[in-house]
Design a protein that fits this description.
Length: 402
């Protein structure tokens, strides 16, 4: 049964001054709130390696943010901002990034009313800049509300990945209320970012330094990756009072057979770095159920975890996924999820969560509440009273599952 949850119950006072507009000079000098069995304490993020349980398995999201915000100009002089969300043709990220002449993307279009049917030229006032030689143009193929299908074409033969690197800017969150700056290119990216495709960073990972990663490995703690490309929907507020009326966006993910095997073996407390890792990991159970009941994994729908009781153990579900991959000679699971994690959700894989402090009335607050058994407000009250910095460039927390 879909839980009846009113989003107003997940509000808290967040003044603009509490939002971290810029990252700290040192990534690992952010504050770290620790929540364990209802008790709250704090330290610095640099102490994280010593706080992890023995034999833990850390799981991070190695998606890489692409500079997906492009600025164009009509012949009339009007400026149009185009924010690339996901590829349509070719639909595979790798193929779209490798295209050398043209590709089509689903985009958010700023100042859309001023874009008629004309072809836009890249706005590049410095004619000597590398972007000026791309010959980049944009043509609108169709609209769907605030988004549209945009066909990009360029003439210099570069792959589209380089086109974005040269012409695009980092799509920092709108709540920072500033334009992206050169420092964001490095700092709005995790050290372990590897696979291009996100338009928002998995921000829990922004605190990790090489020193911390080395200390984790020296303790013998395992570290594995998932890849979930974070969409612009991560910025969307819950606009309806009832959470049941809020549509979750689909996000594609990839999980290796190696990680599935580690999870299936058990014995290692799983620590998820960020809510995107949680959503990916917890989706695996329901994909395994699909294998058991339908013979193949299917995308996880938003409310699937709440609609009925599931008789299968976590090991049975994960085993079914491994069997499916083996029978199809695949070394990774490629799928998508719309899962929403709200109070009442039964966690089956993740035991600890590293995460930042999220916006009021957001689906991420709901996830945190579900994880700590409804005790989210004491955590956020503590953070507000003790000078923690909030949102993407803010401080972090290490939460133990209730």
């Amino acid at each position: 049964m879909i839980p009846e949850i009113h989003i107003e119950d997940y509000n808290y006072p967040l003044d603009d001054a509490r939002i971290a507009k810029y990252p700290l000079e040192q990534r690992d000098q952010s504050k770290l709130l620790i929540y364990k069995k209802g008790a709250i304490s704090e330290t610095l993020f640099s102490d994280l390696p010593s706080l992890l349980p023995d034999n833990a398995l850390l799981v991070c999201n190695d998606t890489k943010v692409v500079p997906a915000r492009l600025h164009f100009q009509r012949h009339s002089g009007a400026h149009i901002e185009i924010f690339c969300l996901e590829p349509l043709d070719p639909a595979e990220y790798n193929l779209s990034f490798a295209a050398t002449e043209t590709c089509t993307w689903k985009c958010v279009i700023g100042n859309a009313k001023k874009w008629k049917d004309d072809t836009l030229e890249l706005y590049c006032p410095d004619k000597e800049a590398p972007a000026a030689s791309l010959g980049l143009q944009a043509r609108l193929l169709g609209r769907d509300g605030k988004t549209g299908s945009v066909c990009f074409s360029w003439t210099d033969g570069s792959p589209f990945s380089r086109v974005l690197e040269v012409a695009g800017t980092v799509p920092i969150p709108p709540y920072l209320n500033r334009e992206s700056e050169p420092l964001d290119t490095e700092r709005y990216q995790t050290l372990y970012a590897h696979i291009r495709g996100s338009v928002a960073a998995p921000t829990a990972g922004l605190h990790f330094t090489q020193k911390i990663l080395d200390a984790i490995r020296e303790r013998g703690i395992g570290m594995e990756t998932v890849c979930l490309h974070v969409g612009a929907g991560t910025f969307l507020p819950v606009k309806s009072s009832l959470v049941s009326e809020h549509p979750m966006h689909r996000e594609p993910f990839v999980v290796s057979r190696k990680l599935l095997e580690r999870l299936h073996e058990g014995g290692s407390p799983v620590v998820a770095i960020g809510t995107t890792s949680v959503r990916t990991l917890e989706s695996l159970y329901y994909m395994g159920v699909s294998c058991l009941e339908n013979g193949c994994p299917q995308d996880v729908e938003q409310w699937a975890p709440y609609m009925r009781e599931y008789p299968y153990s976590t090991q049975e579900a994960l085993g079914a996924l491994i069997h499916y991959l083996d029978s199809h000679k695949m070394d990774s699971l490629v799928a998508g999820t719309r899962i929403i994690i709200v109070p009442g959700f039964r966690f089956r894989i993740v035991e600890r969560l590293i995460t930042n402090f999220h916006q009021p009335e957001s689906t991420l607050i709901l996830l945190v509440s579900a994880f700590v058994g409804g005790d989210w407000r004491s955590i956020y009250d503590y953070a507000l009273e003790h000078g923690f910095r909030f949102l993407s460039y803010g401080d972090s927390s290490l939460l133990e599952r209730a």
